[in-house]
Description:
The protein is mainly β and about 775 residues long. Helices cover about 10% and strands about 35% of the residues. The strands form 13 sheets. Strands 14, 15, 17, 18, 20 and 22 form a six-stranded antiparallel β-sheet that branches. Strands 2-19-16-21-11 form a five-stranded antiparallel β-sheet, with no helix packed on it. The protein has a five-stranded parallel β-sheet with strand order 24-23-34-35-36, with helices on both faces. The longest helix has 20 residues, at about 585-605. The radius of gyration is 35 Å and the shape is flat.
Amino acid sequence: MMIRLRPWLLHMAYLLLSVCAMHHPCQALTVTLTPTSATSISSAYSVSLGNPTGGAYTIGFAGQTTAAIPYNAPPSAVQAAIASLSTVGAGNATVSGNSDAWTVTLADSIVNASHPLTLTSSLTGGSTAVITPLINQQNAWLTSSNSPNPNFLFNNNYPVQAGGQSPTSSGVYGYANAAALDGPIGFIAADFNANSSQVEIIVKGGQGTMRILVDGVVVFNSSSTVSTVSGILYPTNNSQHNIMLDFGGVRATRRIRVECSFCVLCGASVGVNDTITQAAPTTNARCFVLGESFTQGYKGTTFMTGWDYQIGWHFNWDVWSLGQGGTGYIRAGTGGNMDYADRVLPPSNAWVADIGYSTSGSYTLTYAYGGVEETTAPIKYNDSLTTIQSDLEALSNIGAGNVEVHGNAGGMVNAQIIILFRNALSAQAGTVTMNAAGLSPNSSGKAGVLHWYGDIAPFVPRNASGQALPFYIVIACGRSDAIYTLSAIQSAAAALWTGLRAAYPTATIMLVGPWSSGSNQPPIYGQISNALEAQAAITLPPINGQTPFVNLQGTITGTGNEGAPANNGNADIYIASDGVHPTDAGHTYIAQLVSKQFQRLLNGAQPWIPDPAASSLNPVTSTSVPVSVLGADTDGESNLTYTWSAMGPGSVSFSPNGTNAAQNSTATFTAAGCYTITAQVTDTALKTQSNSFCVTVDAPPSSIAISPPSWTTFTYPASQAFTATADDQFGNPIVSQPPFTWGLLSGSVGTISTSGASTVTQNELLCVLSAVSVTCAVIWYVHNSQR
């Protein structure tokens, strides 16, 4: 008999279903540092039950414990018990062996150093049951046999010398530091791709600082008070330490960059089934920033966040900082430094020799060129720079006036000297070697290390054919030259700029003048700045009709500093307690000023985008997401308008759009997929600047459509099959349908199978309910009492 629907016979039933999540939630990154040479990564364990005669045992993993496993259970039963854990899952554990001794291997995706596999025994007879982790790792050392490891990208694919060290008594292997680099920079950067759920960065304790970036995001900064790793500092001893990056069991390929400033990087470890491969060089424009201690980063400066690096963030440049304290256009400074020209202009035949921490003894220096090799008389560990220079000039293949020696020798701790060849010898390909066997102590191999200091020529970006690509050279300050006349400073600066233009024709040269610091504001700094600007207008070509010079006089005001505020200017915030150098906030302030002026130089009157376009969430799981961008213009940001557009699988609307207020807008999508969103900034002269980013719109289950639909009649008694379709937030069926859970609401009469088939045995209201309700749909049925 057919039951017809009548309004007064309505009964209401709810059909509720649960669905599995369609995407993984964001995985939190945990960073820990341990003073150990052993890796924490283990995905395999051996188990010996000790030949028990009875009882049972359990296996635990990540907060879950199996049911009791009989003492004589075969490997297949043990595997099933372990796989039944929600923290393991089917297919993520393999057990082989016999009932007494077996090995379990966990899938890479669930391995977690914080959650080892455990065994709890209630066995009887036999010996004690033991579970042993099988260390499952592979180490990628930075160097091998003093050659760089090709699986690491060193300083964005630019030359690296064979500078790695052999294993030391501390058990530290294959390390490298800035001394291994064939060029004048103060840090080493190594990029690599790691396909793993855990990566350990292996370092040697010592003086210095380190940053670690994962896919471009800083996750560890050993000198930052706002580090994501609270309380963890770079270790100061000489032992090996491991910095564990734990990605919560999510195995994926990630680009990892480790930056070391005067500290030691040894390598990295991943699981035995994981890989470490060389990362591709970045395509960002290169920028060399030449300066003194303000550029080197001093006092209140967090590692690699000085003003020079921050302008790189503004322009997306690959910044190489060449700052050395106390140097200038003329002044070479102290402590093994060189003036600006010697640091960047080829040829620069210079060598750096480390005397180390020696407190007695002597060493010799040998110069070889054209088959002629001569060695100095023994040089005492504490000889002065003048004495060392005289010893070198005494060699017949060098001669008087052809060499200069700078540095901090004379018995100073960690003494270092620079040997700088002049005149015809500056262009020779001669070599310098050092015999430091007579020095004591010759600690950790430091004394006697010698490397070429060089110029920037090897680091100039080039295409596949070897042709130089466009890049930038920024030359800053000149405060250290205050002891010289203005005309001498102008002459040295003009010679440097002319030499750079001849040596590097693809370079764009921009200048930043000296700035004053709190109470340290002698008039000479302003005079130097004006003199350099006047000379730049003569020597350097204009950029978009403007002299490529940024004059910062007057930007730091007041006479106080961070440690002794005077409440009469911004120096209280921007100048460190030494009264000279910028604080972190001061570097940011200077970077903003310089970036604005550089934008004016490079873009003319066009607007620019200091804060790139971005969305507040990525990926997006709803139908809309806030987006933002911020432009800048010489006539003021308030005169700009912002227009949003998008390309992707569906249409996208933005509100607001086309106004100044649209710098903060909302993007509304019509379909899931990957979108390229573009923000165009327009000024009053209709000049534009654009910036784009990519965002992924996921398709999580948002609703369920059930068939047969609502308002359905069917014969009673009868069987009825139900089907369900999960829709995304846009009402479209998701591509890969999840499994559904079916069940009967309490009090219902009838049965329902896991496939959704229902049998009605009485004239009762049918209700179907899932075990766990994530989303639901309502369906109405009528059951007439008449047959």
